[in-house]
Please model this.
Amino acid sequence: MILQGIAASPGVAVGPVLRLEPEVFAVRETEIEASLLEAEITSFKGALEASRRDLTAIRDGIAAELGEDEARIYDAHLMILDDPDMIQAVERGVRDRHRNAAWVFAGVMSSVAARFENLADEYLRERRSDILDCERRVLRHLLGADRRTLGDLSEPMVIVAHDLGPSEVAMLPRGKVLAFVLEVGGRTSHGAIVARGRGIPAVVSVKGALQSVHSGDRAAVDGFAGTVEVNPDEARATFYRRRLEKLRLQAGALQAMMAQPAETLDGRRIELGANLELPSDAPMALEAGADGIGLFRTEFFYLNRVDLPSEEEQYQAYRGVCESMAGKPVIFRTMDLGGDKVASYLGMTHETNPFLGLRGIRLALASPEMFRTQIRAIYRASAHGRVRMMFPMVSSVEELARALELRDSVLADLAREGIAHDPTVETGIMIETPSAVWMADALAKHSAFFSIGSNDLIQYTLAMDRDNERLAHLYEPLDPAVLRSIDHTVKAAHAAGRWVGVCGEMAGDPHTAALLVGLGVDELSVSCYDLPRVKAALRSVRHDTLRALAQEALACPSAAPVRALVRERVDAMMPSYLAIDRERSSKPGANDAATS
Ligand code: PEP
Ligand code: MG
Model:
């Protein structure tokens, strides 16, 4: 039986299953005598304090292991515990209604969680699990329950659970947990973020996972395809063993290529950068053999916290990335908040279509002081490395002009104040909207470079929500409408003497990356995981062949013939170990090259 979920953290693992039953505390309503009310409140405060101590210890452990940014999740949990409204509501409930603290507390927390449950915004919805995580922690202390613990696993296992709070994922003993499978959650849930940071394969949103697996079962988890196969038969077990072996061989072959440039057989050099979300991951980009950072998504800096990051805090973080990259270029994408990335302290109001709303540069221009602070921090960091800056979601020349005006006034301030910075930082824009594609010639006059954000460009060009699981099969990078948009952008940029990159997920597929190079793209920026594979792919192809192929693709009437073209012609040039990416666990024998 193969269960399908959402691929949350890459990797493949096969092993015995450990079902983690949902931790449900039976909290009964009990009347408390008047003389014991204060003692009840004291014990509630004691449980809060003990939970704070747990969380601080976890937080510090994560900060040491993964860095301050990942640890910030736990600051959010600490804030939930410190919320004066919550504490007051519990105290009042105990005193006025003479009820036990655990029962009152559980009631208060469920009403907070319920408010998040039905939100349209996926990111905010995921915050519900943070609240439940905190609730369980406090109840555990209040009721004196044993911790649900994985520390004493006798052998490495695949964990299957309804949900795991981020603190639980953070505590998973790395050598003992092969992978985990959750019934709920999305790509942006904190559990998934922590799993990726810790290198544990994970599949989430697997409906009915706990009903489908039993103790004693074995499971094969494919964190690339988002599949979980329960009790694979001998043939399928062999398939996974081969897949694991290929991954190991691939890692070895790719490692050997780390220091080589991303250059085609006929000498076309492509700048191959890494995408980064967290400053602490910069060393991973170097280890993967990146030429630089092609996309630093700075908005993650603004999330999971309660107030704006200061200029100094941002400067230190950006400077750290520049220093880690030791002179290699770093493109800081200014805050791309809005859409699915919502910072509640900014007072963002509900929008019916957040991806078409106050997002990216629109939101930045609507909050000029916040935007200025970030640009200042980026410029200050430029004194410590090779910095480039780009604006996301630009949809008109006027918008770009306003952003550049703001940048110029920041530059003038820095010069007047005598603050060290590099005044020649190149400023570019992301091409993510159809309007930017069609105005690319005009935009190129004011941009040092373009970076095509294909994740958004696809969704806006095809009118397909990038996060909607029900449209996932239609969200098609190889649609000729997308390819023609890229072609138009590249031509406009080159005519103005500007270079063009692609930094969306599309660039991370080796076969599609080759097609992008055929379309004339000069730079690609991909995840650290994809980077060595894309480099290997580009080193095995000829640019002239790709150019001819791209012309054929542009003439295709739909995505299917493009996919066939790529499957036949690009695949023939690729090293055999890249075939691993085309093996879909969910479809034995399927060989869907370009969309893997
Ligand atoms: C994109 O849209 O392709 C992109 C790189 O930006 P993000 O995924 O952060 O929206
Ligand atoms: Mg984007």
Notes: The pocket of magnesium ion (ligand 2) is lined by residues 392, 432, 453, 455-456 (CB under 6 Å). Residues 580-596 have pLDDT under 50 and may be disordered.
